[in-house]
Write a structure and sequence with these properties.
heterodimer; A: 250 residues; alpha+beta; Ubiquitin-like (UB roll); Fumarate Reductase Iron-sulfur Protein, Chain B, domain 2; 2 domains; five-stranded mixed β-sheet; two-stranded antiparallel sheet; 7 strands; 13% strand; elongated; B: 607 residues; 22 strands; globular; binds flavin-adenine dinucleotide
């Protein structure tokens, strides 16, 4: 099958065309099971080595290659041609400064991530027997879904509230905070809830729901944000997540 | 050009690099982590099944049994002092990860849950044991996230998207590294008392691989060019269960949960090759068995793949047959192997709950690499002479705790155990050592090489050369090897190296995010390592672990209880024309466990 790619290009160093523009590429002999990333590689390796993108693992776990594919955020390595059709439009994710072609400035994104104290906090001594802290299977299940986050930024850069105001911490940072707030072993919930109660915290979420379908890892982002909002209202994460309500993925 | 000075520079931010950074900085060193990827993009995040330690949370276990399995799995080439450290320190390293917040799955008592994995047994090979600690089947992801989080908590300094391209030596010591800042193309010199490489593997030498595009062996190639030998490079692991055609890994945890390999006749062929532990034999054994089945025409539909079946009815049938009481259902498999199900559905259109998965062996893990001692100090000869200031840990290193074949779950253990030891050793060293001055013009040679690549005006694109190398290495230096084939592989790679020097062309001549240039440079690393692999393989005239010779089918303990050390000959780090190596086998395997316990003596490996 033949496939046409329409790609948003930008190279600030270019002497001939330093402005953002579209460029088309055609590829022959494409199988419907080819990954979009593979085909971007074919363009780069066979036609135009200047095409610039981030990528690494190529199977959806490293989070490097989030981009806008036919108008929706996705990882290029997780979409196959049969998912996107024979005409594919590729743009960088929105809301972060474009540096070159599909490469955007990730620093603001990671700054938001760092602002929610995305690390385990527990200042009590570890068990005297030198072994692990205990946690029930049920307590572990409460935050399982949000441990999936790979920081690809697909959710945050699909969020109109984030596009409108880059100071909003964004869905990814809230997901990361959720993973700790609802971990029975963690003791930093209060501080994190404080950070997220800020005007640029969770309340900027208008439940538009773009983030959940954008997540390549099946995280129920909107639900997680909702649970954090509830915890802020109640002043504590206690009793908010009922394990029996957690949807089973099969 | 910018120059920075730190007590210690850690190159690489996967599990090994982050662990080392954490411990070096907690030990008081002023540390920088330099990584070509954002830390959380490192391939440690792709590790699935688990991290092994004899915690004994579900059944009796013992670090000595773990050590035995590791030595046996490594086909007796592993250095037993390193294996002992690995098995013993695995326990509190993993407990420490839990204390850092790592969300392991739990047993009904609330302890870290453990599952079976290939080659891990209780009581010196008696029966499979539950030793692999796991967090669903995204254990590596959780380790990487947890360690990165802890580094943030501890204010570790990161230089993200800085690509290290050279090691700086002076007065016989490692004194720093040169890196290109991807965003600007600018060169940076990192002047350090201690430099630790943790740059991961080089699966991209082969055509079918589970490894990321970024796994191009940069760190190993860089130190090799600066005179450090590569150890045991002929030992490269092909994991039995890569997704057919893509090489994407399907974890051994599938077989740990009861998954079964089947040929076109629906026959559980591993019963033939490993009567005792069958599908859970060590990886080299299973990969070879699959190849033998394919050769006999037992591939599915005459093609070169077999089936891996985790459908609950299949698993339960075999569990019942084995007299086990455990049973699984859809919901359990869906939770325990969530990543795997997703991978199969996305990339193969196969739902493992209703259909078997098509699999073939895939290039997976480098047992060989930069030789180190158990403190992650780089050693450069058979007398264990330390190169001051230089350290290595993780997959790029060869300590050698995996010998000729790594057991599943032992790489993650290697990262945390020897990453931690490296970090501690560095903290200690930088207190004692002072800065050795930089040589004059520390970037001269590498700048010349980078400029050559940037301005290359030949006819062949890097992608084309890379593909030819991968195809040749897959067929000539893959699961089965024979002298004529390996020699073909070597001459192919020599020729490709020459074309790389004389006929290369790239399109992007810019400075900012020039990934065309970087990929070309990475290809140079792959070619060098491919050559070392081939040359090391042709010299070892025996079959052991991951190195399987059709012309020398037996293991030869009289002659080959020794490591391979391969040195680059001559003064030029980028030799023109053919690259000559000097290879010796003077470094004997450490057998300190066998010296006190006969069970660790080499014997025939049956599973
Ligand atoms: C799919 C898959 C599944 C696996 N599952 C398991 C498992 O279940 N259990 C197990 O024990 N092992 C498993 N392994 C093996 C294990 O994951 C790896 O061996 C291990 O993660 C390697 O870690 P590392 O820290 O050495 O390197 P990596 O995690 O690969 O990190 C390399 C780092 O080096 C940096 N780097 C590389 N080159 C440069 C350069 N030139 N300049 C600057 N930085 C550089 C990168 O940015 C990266 O941060 C698996 C491997 C794969 C591929």
């Amino acid at each position: 099958m033949d496939v046409t790619f329409r790609i948003r290009r930008y190279n600030p160093e270019s002497t001939t065309n330093p402005k953002p523009h579209w460029q088309e590429f055609s590829l022959k002999d494409v199988a419907e099971t080819d990954r979009v990333l593979e085909l971007l590689h074919r363009i780069k390796w066979e036609q135009d080595g200047t095409l610039t993108l981030r990528r690494s693992c190529s199977h959806g776990i490293c989070g490097s290659d989030a981009m806008r594919i036919n108008g929706r955020n996705a990882l290029a390595c997780k979409l196959l041609i049969r998912d996107v059709g024979e005409k594919v439009q590729i743009e960088p994710i929105l809301g972060l400064r474009v540096l070159k072609d599909l490469v955007v400035d990730m620093e603001p994104f990671f700054e938001h991530y760092r602002s929610v104290m995305p690390y385990f906090i527990n200042n009590t001594p570890v068990p005297a027997d030198g072994r692990e802290r205990l946690q029930t299977i049920e307590d572990r299940a409460k935050f399982d879904n949000t441990t999936n986050c790979i920081l690809c930024a697909a959710c945050t850069t699909s969020c109109p509230s984030f596009w409108a105001n880059g100071k909003y911490v964004g869905p990814a940072a809230i997901v990361q905070a959720h993973r700790f707030i609802f971990d029975s072993r963690d003791q930093g919930a209060e501080e994190r809830l404080d950070v997220l109660a800020d005007p640029n915290g969770v309340w900027r979420c208008r439940t538009i729901y773009n983030c959940t379908p954008a997540c390549p890892r099946g995280i129920e982002v909107t639900r997680a944000i909702g649970e954090v909002k509830l915890a802020i209202r109640k002043g504590s994460p206690e009793g908010i997540i009922n394990v029996n309500d957690i949807p089973q993925h099969t | 050009m910018q120059t920075h000075q730190f007590d210690a520079v850690i190159v690489g931010a996967g599990g090994a690099g982050l662990m080392a950074a954490l411990y070096a900085s907690q030990g008081g060193a002023n540390v920088a982590v330099v990584s070509k990827l954002y830390p959380t993009r490192s391939h440690t995040g792709a590790a699935l099944g688990g991290i092994g330690a004899a915690l004994g949370n579900l059944e009796e276990d013992n670090p000595l049994w773990h050590a035995y399995d590791t030595v046996k799995g490594g086909d007796y080439l592993a250095d037993q002092n390193a294996v002992k450290v690995l098995a013993e320190e695995a326990i509190d390293s993993i407990i420490e990860l839990e204390h850092m917040g790592l969300p392991f799955d739990r047993t009904s008592e609330g302890r870290i849950s453990q599952r079976r994995f290939g080659g891990h047994t209780s009581n010196f090979g008696e029966k499979p044991v539950r030793r692999a600690c796991h967090s669903a089947d995204r254990t590596g992801h959780m380790i990487l996230q947890t360690l990165y989080q802890q580094c943030i908590k501890n204010n570790v300094r990161f230089f993200d998207e800085f690509h290290v391209v050279d090691l700086i030596m002076n007065q016989g010591k490692a004194v720093g590294t040169v890196a290109i800042q991807l965003g600007t193309g600018e060169m940076h010199v990192f002047h350090a008392k201690a430099t630790l490489f943790a740059t991961g593997g080089w699966g991209r030498v082969w055509q079918i691989t589970s490894n990321a595009h970024s796994l191009t062996g940069d760190g190993s190639a860089v130190v090799f060019r600066r005179g450090v030998p590569m150890q045991d490079m002929e030992f490269y692991q092909f994991h039995p269960t890569g997704l057919y055609g893509l090489g994407v890994l399907l974890t051994e945890g599938i077989r740990g949960e009861g998954g079964i390999l089947l040929n076109r006749h629906g026959q559980r062929f591993m019963e033939k090759y490993a009567p005792k532990i069958k599908d859970l034999a060590s990886r080299d054994v299973v990969s070879r068995s699959i190849y033998l089945e394919l050769r006999e025409g037992n591939g599915i539909g005459g093609k070169d793949y077999v089936h891996l079946d985790i459908r609950p009815e299949t698993v339960n049938r075999y569990l019942a047959e084995a007299g086990e009481t455990r049973r699984v259902d859809d919901a359990y498999i869906a939770q325990a192997l969530a990543e795997t199900l997703e991978l199969c559905r996305t990339y193969a259109g196969v739902d493992p709950l209703t259909e078997p998965m098509p699999i073939q062996p895939t290039a997976h893990y480098a047992m060989g690499g930069i030789p180190t001692n158990i403190n992650a100090e780089v050693v450069i000869d058979e007398n264990w002479t330390v190169l001051p200031g230089l350290y290595a840990a993780g997959e790029c290193a060869c300590v050698s705790c995996h010998g000729a074949n790594r057991l599943g779950t032992n790489s993650l253990v290697d990262l945390v155990v020897f990453g931690r030891r490296g970090g501690k050793a560095i903290a200690d060293y930088v207190k004692r050592a002072s800065f050795t001055p930089l040589p004059s013009n520390p970037t001269g040679e590498i700048e010349a090489e980078i400029n050559r690549l940037r301005n290359s005006k030949g006819k062949t694109r890097p992608g084309e050369l890379r593909k030819m190398m991968q195809t040749s290495m897959m067929s000539n230096v893959g699961v089965f090897r024979i002298e004529s084939g390996i020699k073909q592989g070597i001459s192919d790679v020599q020729e490709l190296r020459e074309r790389y020097q004389t006929d290369l062309t790239i399109d992007d001549r810019g400075f900012q995010f020039n990934t065309d240039l970087i990929e070309a440079w990475e290809l140079g690393c792959l070619l060098d390592l491919a050559l070392v692999t081939g040359k090391s393989a042709v010299e070892r005239t025996e079959s052991r672990g991951g190195h399987s010779r059709e012309d020398y089918q037996n293991r030869d303990d009289d002659k080959w209880m020794c490591h391979t050390l391969a040195y680059r000959k001559g003064d030029n780090p980028y030799p023109r024309g053919t690259m000559d190596l000097e290879i010796n086998h003077n470094k004997k395997v450490d057998t300190s466990l066998a010296d006190v316990d006969k069970r660790f003596l080499p014997k025939e490996r049956v599973y």
